Amino acid sequence: MTGPVQVTRAQALAWRMGRQLLDPVGDMSAEDVVRRLTAVPAQSDVELAVRTRRQSSRSGEVHEALRDGRLLRTFAFRGAVHLLTPEEGGTYLALRAAGRQWELPSWQTYYRLAPEDWPDFRAAVRDALDDGPLTTDELGASLATRPRFEHLRPIFANEPWTLLKALAWQGDLTFGPSRDGTPTFELLTRNPRWAGIPDLADAGPRAIVEYVQAYGPTTPQHLQYWFGEGLSAGRRRLQRWVEELGQRLAPVVVDGAPALVLREDVDELARTEPTSAVRLLPAYDQWVLGPGTADPQVVPPGQRSVVSRGANLVVAAGVVVGTWTVRDDALTVTVFPGAERPAADALDDGIARLAACVDRPLHPTVLT
């Protein structure tokens, strides 16, 4: 009887780079790139994160996809704003809402909303947004016309974000177009592509499959980081969903350590050759946020604080080996002390890819 397929870390990272459209670069639309990554944090340079993964692109396509409803902006992982696709986004909102934080005693005391008040509160919010997007002040003013919710007006005027997150997680609203730099919120159901929020029992296994497809080979620790810490999904739920997937997941061994991939991907992973590809990625790119900056296979432990603070990333063969900055047309690449300088041709290719994505030639200086 044969055991699990064994691969090297270099193979695993090369395969993941392919899955994430970094090497080879993909030919998908902007929304399909987001779909492949499952989510893209808005705190990143979203345009660069998406364009880096597309052979052909132009400035503004992410904004157009948001405007057309092919992408949506909402609160998701760790309560932060992310870009999701309307077809799959409900899967992650289902997991995020499973904890029902709005029923905590602290929430009930602060917002003066009991669990039984929430159905009517949510209906009032949807009714207020029925005529179109509103700022938080406007939404609070509309709710204040109902005596039952008048006490919430100061909250919507000053610190509405926690309350808005709970509404977003339940699929009531999403970010609308900014108005003079001020965010607005609109009904999620106005987006014809919105597929709704699935049952948690279906959403959990589906979310794990989508994550493993993009970020495998993965471990239970990765799943706990992404779903347990990121969406408060709960360790027991995660374990149950993994068990329910059964033979859909296959064990592999990466440099002696056990991991999981989809069974359908095992052969492709085993055939994958290591890559020397270099990519210059924006800060907070999903390449590092997906597995987590604590993953030493991707982020050297001594450089974790640099990555977590928002440095732009130089990734070689799947590992963060340095940072980069651009000022006008001057690009400075700084290789971490002790890291091997990337091969010249691979680095040149990575710089050319960045230049194509920022629509101007770049004159590089490499510091080691």
TrEMBL record:
Taxonomic superkingdom: Bacteria
Pfam families named among the record's database cross-references: AlkZ-like
The protein, known as: Winged helix DNA-binding domain-containing protein
Record organism: Cellulomonas terrae
